[in-house]
Amino acid sequence: MSDAVQPTKDQLLIIGTVFVNQSEFAIDASYIQEVVNAPERYSPMPLAPDYLVGLINLRGIVLPVLNLEILLNLAPECGDSEEHKIAIINYNGARVGFLLSATGEVIRARQEDICRFEYDQGTPNQVIQGALRLEGGTRILQILDPSALINVQNLPQISASLEANRLTEQKKRSQRRRKCISFSVQENLLAFEITGIHEIVKPTNVKPSPLSSSLCGHVMQLRGQMISIVDFSILLGTAPAQGALSFEDKKIIILKIENAFIGLLVDTIDSIDTYDENDVLPFPVLVKERATMFLGVIARTERSDILLLNPQKILTAEEVREVTNGHSRLFEASDEQGLTAQVKGVRTSYISFEIGELFGIQSRKFRKSSNTRTLSYRLLGAIPSFQGY
């Protein structure tokens, strides 16, 4: 049994999800080196098994590419191979790629949500390591085993001596390499370094924000936590394009800024890329507004360049307070598992009223209503008050 996914009891495991055909799989994100577009052609390998697509040259490294549809006996996908991407797995220096239809989310999983499978010793090609339970068990994802993917039967690998020589020659350069997740907002291709991203989720359980803010139009609940959602296109000052994606088809990147969790609404998640920190080119910022948000440009020879952003400079401290409307303690990130709001053992009556939407005020602070035709109010008993309010 592989030990690739073995978090301690209190650790949160960062998981990336990918789609192979219509099936969604999970894999430990620390083993994903990058995600690249599939090439137009592969180098064939004589006497290769049917699940080996072929070999690719990735910046001077020759890698085998697997077809999980065949390896896992999935139904074949309808569509052109040009739509595919390749996830590059790096397990203790050994690398392999596998075809995927699309990238999914980046989530944080608890140990108790992972159920590991056991196989008979010597069972070949058992690349499913276990199952991940999400959303209270209503969503089950199979977990891919990076160790088993590397050791699939009859998979060609670079000899240990050649790999050791190559690693020695590139040691200094590899120490400077970073990973980033790129995404699109309208026509802009942007990226955050992967360590600056808390999670990437679908826009589920999203509701209009009860707080008045020009930046925050929605809030969402994530495992019982309230997250403010900022439309990144508004922040960048871009106008909606014709044929734009629906709200439900977009993604939300959750960042931790000024001790608060903020969600950024973006169009699509593009890929996971590696870059050398010395190769980030200066960005000629034309305006002073949000100039510190841009770290530079990552140049790519075969694809469009990426603007690398500083997640901590997306919003100012004042804008974070605006987004949370001054109630930062309700949104405060006390630990990596989420936001916590301590509740006193005090029960307080509130009066609710409507001005387009429903609002509330503690009854002891309510004096009178001068126009009952425009305000409807009622007494709400037994409401716990938050500490400090």
Tell me the domain tally.
3
Which spans have pLDDT < 50 for at least 5 consecutive residues?
Answer: 334-347, 366-389
The CATH architecture classification of the largest domain is Beta Barrel
CATH superfamily of the largest domain: CheA-289, Domain 4
How much of the sequence is in beta strands? 35-45%
Percentage of residues assigned to helices: 10-25%
Q: What is the CATH class of the largest domain?
A: Mainly Beta
What distance lies between the first and last C-alpha atoms, to the nearest angstrom? 52 Å
How large, in whole angstroms, is the Cα Rg?
Answer: 25 Å
Q: What is the CATH topology classification name of the largest domain?
A: OB fold (Dihydrolipoamide Acetyltransferase, E2P)
**Largest sheet, described in full?**
6 strands, mixed
Number of helices: 7
Number of beta-strand segments: 28
| Basic shape | globular
**Strand order, biggest sheet?**
8-1-2-11-10-9
Structural class: mainly beta
